[in-house]
Design a protein that fits this description.
Chain lengths: 300, 322
Amino acid sequence: MSAIETEALGRRYGRRWGLKDCSLAVPRGRVVALVGPNGAGKTTLLHMAVGLLAPTVGRIRVLDGPPPRERPEQLRRIGFVAQDKPLYRGFRVKDMVRFGAALNADWDQDWALRRLRDVGIPLGQRVGQLSGGQHAQVALAMALGKRPELLVLDEPVANLDPLARREFLQVLMAEVAESGLSVVLSSHLIADLERVCDYLILLSNGRVQLAGETEGLLAKHRIFVGARERAESLTRVHYVVSESYTQRQATLLVRLNGHSLQDSGWNARPITLEELVLGYMKLSSQPPPGPLRVLQEASP
Amino acid sequence: MIAVALRQHRIQLSSGAALMIVLAALLVWTGHEMTSYLHSTGLSGCLAARGGGCDSFSQLFENRYGSLLRNVAYPNFLPMLVGIFWGAPLVARELESGTHRLAWTQSITRRRWLTTKLALFVAATVGIGAIFSLLLSWWFHPFAQLQFQGGYSRMDLDSFDFQGVVPIAYSLFAFAVGTAAGVVVRRVLPAMAITFAAYLPLRLLMQSLRAHFETPLQITYQALATSPRAGLGDWITHSRIVNAAGRTVSDQTVFSTCGVGPSVPKSDVFACLASHGYHQVDLYQPVSRFWAFQGIESAVFVGLAALLLTASCYWVIRRSSA
């Protein structure tokens, strides 16, 4: 049971690969953050998942079915909010609702109208005159109005001010709590998503660097701060994801492997999701210090 | 989906309708003036009697309204506007603004999305082409009745293009060029420019080939005289003077040999021309071929349009990336 499953998936644009050799499994019933630096292939992957793009190589399955491209029975199961949340600017909000009703067999008109009313968007308003936050809410209502099993959002909170960002995520979380919807959202700003995501996939250079439940991942990593000259004793035993040094001090992001670290004279503290993501991103942008091991959590 | 497409393109469609109304108003106004002139002067009665002798009368009409006939070349651009303002933005605007990512992730296939839009616009294009053709055929009617010197033929370049079924074919072709350009270049303005640049040369090329759709007929008669086929509505594609040996003689040679000029009596000129064995040779396409030519030209443009639209569908459904 996975929302998205890929096998050696790749997509080439001319000579450049937008995504290469990507194998991953996105579990269902979760809010999954797909993070990675710009150009990591997040959008390419999501576009293949919603049927906008056909893979060049490899295989992709969505909701345990074929990719939705040209398949209405799959398209109706997936809601998508593209980057920049495209809507027809010349339409009024009510025209957008009609658009959703006309093009989606499972459209829930009552739900869509109630949702728009709840967030205070007048139906007579022109889409081009909506504020950024309202625009995002309409885009979300369009994707949710078709009552999908899987909601895919590409950079949903980029370009939103903090208040609009919070409101957007609130609506999203309420919907997830209510319907058990599977959500995949991409972002390069993990801090925004820390509160809403329970599963993380880090994509870099088109490959999965890290995947797992956020709580599990956080529990498996620590930041160690200690004397610089003793750093080597730690790096010998543990896998160091990233390291930074001042003249006398070393700060190491370490993946725990069960060895005790209590009496080593290091100062350990828990890691934030952002630190974790940044650590692995840095790792992938440099030649790896050792064999690069991917930590893949089996979903329960 | 039809309702959505109508809503989405209502400005384009209503602008097209508005343009047609303006054109219709102009044509009805000038056309009505011409027909009432024909009737009030008695010219139409003279022509209906088929007794001839209406030439000087016709000349008056020609002096008065001939300039309109030349201005009517402007509506020749109308089918191209269909391509520029309907075809080019059809897919390109969505691609340019990113809304294709919204449209293509609803619960209908891209195929249905595109075929609905194409069906709507093809129907509107056929409609506009048909109205255009009917309006101008009616407008040309007075000219068709006249038999003034030089003759009017509905096969002439500036008349054939506005009548019968070719306006529909041109419009469909222009629309298809615009659509295909938009699908491939994915931006509205370049697609419009390509439509302009591709449509006109092809139209001009076909126009230059039209005289060869069927082998022209030939008629030989006394040099500089009125053709025995005058007034039959033939499209004279080529006219020259040959000498007794059948070689083409330049006009200058003819003029210098026989002293054609205002002071020379007509009979002397004709005697001189006859003594040198000069003859007029016209190549012409009889007006009876009008519908055959319409059919050939329409088939070419409708065929090209079908090809381009099929390619556009293929490109959008199979190839087009997000």
